[in-house]
Specification:
Length: about 280
């Protein structure tokens, strides 16, 4: 099996809404004005409401100050706007995932937790919203596998109790690739920027490509910190196998200490529910 072929086949099933595609095209052109983007967004009342809630959430720290889409765009910027539009729309993209394989409330709680963690860890990086999007979307490859290959996915999930390394080994043995590689291919075909889909691709092996090492390590760390707050499935994990080796490598590269991780968890918990309610 090949990730590119699988994504090409299912892209009509797992596609972004037309409004998101249009916004993506406008921003990619490099010539879009705030007014043009506003015109597209306000034609979708649900998206408009979500965007304004995002802009006024504690996530941005601008509570009550943003009352129009135009103002939201001017404050957030085009790149962050694209990311938040995707975040506001993506949960509706994945419908019909077998409930015996995954509880979607649990899955999206974990995904939002990863996104919030990644954004907090990248607090010194400009345009850090891409870290939130990478965290939010880091597990979409699993959803594609659950949808298209439920029997094989059940075998992978049976290995989750032995830790993430065991599950990844099972994916490689059964499919010939990991959920991270498949998810990255979906995001690439959605035309998301390389600095987002590369993070997703390398989350399980963050040291592989020096150019993306810091970004991938940040996402890897965010995912594993999120597992302490809310795992992505209801599978029980053996405690001494819960943290994969790549997480320790990522934490070392980023210089994370137990105190820093505890602080990230504390702050993240204050934002997760608010962001989850907006996204879902």
């Amino acid at each position: 099996m090949d990730p590119c072929a699988i994504v090409t086949e299912v892209r009509s099933i797992f596609s972004l809404p037309d409004v998101v595609i249009r916004i993506n095209e406008l921003i990619d052109s490099g010539e879009a004005t705030n007014a043009e983007l506003e015109k597209v967004i306000i034609n979708d009342p649900a998206l408009t409401a979500k965007l304004l809630r995002f802009a006024n959430s504690s996530y941005f720290g601008l509570s009550g100050k943003v009352d129009t889409v135009l103002r939201a765009i001017s404050i957030i910027g085009h790149k962050e706007l694209r990311n938040l539009v995707i975040a506001s729309s993506v949960t509706a993209t994945f419908r019909g995932i077998p409930s015996d394989l995954v509880n979607m409330d649990t899955f999206w709680y974990h995904s939002v937790t990863c996104g919030v963690n990644a954004r907090l860890l990248a607090s010194q990086i400009e345009s850090r919203e891409r870290f939130f999007i990478a965290g939010l979307l880091h597990g979409v490859g699993r959803l594609v596998l659950f949808s298209q290959f439920p029997k094989e996915s059940a075998k992978v999930l049976s290995c989750m109790s032995q830790g993430e390394d065991a599950a990844l080994a099972a994916e490689r043995e059964i499919f010939g690739f990991t959920h991270a590689q498949l998810g990255a291919e979906l995001l690439r075909q959605w035309r998301l920027p390389q600095n987002i889909w590369k993070m997703v691709e390398l989350q399980c092996e963050p040291m592989k490509e020096p150019e993306f090492q810091y970004d991938a390590a940040t996402l890897c760390a965010a995912v594993n910190i999120a597992n302490f707050i809310q795992p992505c499935t209801n599978q029980k994990v053996v405690s001494d196998k819960a943290i994969p080796m790549n997480a320790f490598e990522a934490w070392s590269l980023l210089g994370l200490t137990p105190e820093v991780i505890d602080n990230v968890i504390t702050v993240a918990k204050l934002q997760i529910i608010e962001v989850l309610n907006i996204v879902r």
